[in-house]
Amino acid sequence: MSPQLKKGFLEYCILAVLERGDSYGYQIIKDLAAVIAMPESTLYPILKRLEKQGKVTCHNELADGRNRKYYHLTATGQADVVDFLQEQTEVERIYQFIREAMEHA
Amino acid sequence: MSPQLKKGFLEYCILAVLERGDSYGYQIIKDLAAVIAMPESTLYPILKRLEKQGKVTCHNELADGRNRKYYHLTATGQADVVDFLQEQTEVERIYQFIREAMEHA
DNA sequence: CTCCTCACTTTGTTATGCATAGTATAGCTT
DNA sequence: AAGCTATACTATGCATAACAAAGTGAGGAG
């Protein structure tokens, strides 16, 4: 997928994963792998940003003697995803515009 | 629309317009206005980039005593749009992934 | 004790949209 | 002729963003 387009989906994919329950970095990457690839150096900065924006909250937890940062979706973050989904019709319209232009040729 | 997502569509919208025939900056903006808003300070740099990448070619022409830069879509640029359209299924899959996550909650 | 997986951090580079402002011509109105 | 609007392109500078690459440290398997 075009890298530029991909950027538009990244953060919403992360928020969607958290909708299913609190999770942490490494797990999120694995959960997303099937739908969208994301290296650690991309995920963690986005999580930090989302936290600063109040779309997720963060709490540490111990698992197997290892520390994990669990992220939790807030109401703000949830509302964000809802808004995002509503944009899909606009996206479809753009695809249709491009497709029609191509057929015309 | 989320600005980040919008970025992913801009250049393909421009290429699509040129598919219908050679055009120039000001006209392209007007043609796109209905589907996607784009200020001049966004369009012209993109056109320059597309030219450097060989996706469009450029030739000057006089119209009403005014000089115009006409842009022409190349085969490379055309192939690009075709590729882009084929990514739509992937985009749909992402939307479905997010939608399912939201419903699950 | 070495290698692999897990889990997160840090640094630095590159790309990109766009607000803002500026330049310049044509044509219409008053 | 002065002023306004539309046309057409240019230039500067800022903010955002993804990601490669490398490093840190813990735990478990062989």
UniProtKB/TrEMBL annotation, chains A, B:
Every Transcription regulator PadR N-terminal domain range: 14-80
Xref: InterPro entries: Metal_resp_DNA-bind_regulator, Tscrpt_reg_PadR_N, WH-like_DNA-bd_sf, WH_DNA-bd_sf
Protein name per Swiss-Prot or TrEMBL: Transcription regulator PadR N-terminal domain-containing protein
Taxonomic path: Bacteria, Bacillati, Bacillota, Bacilli, Lactobacillales
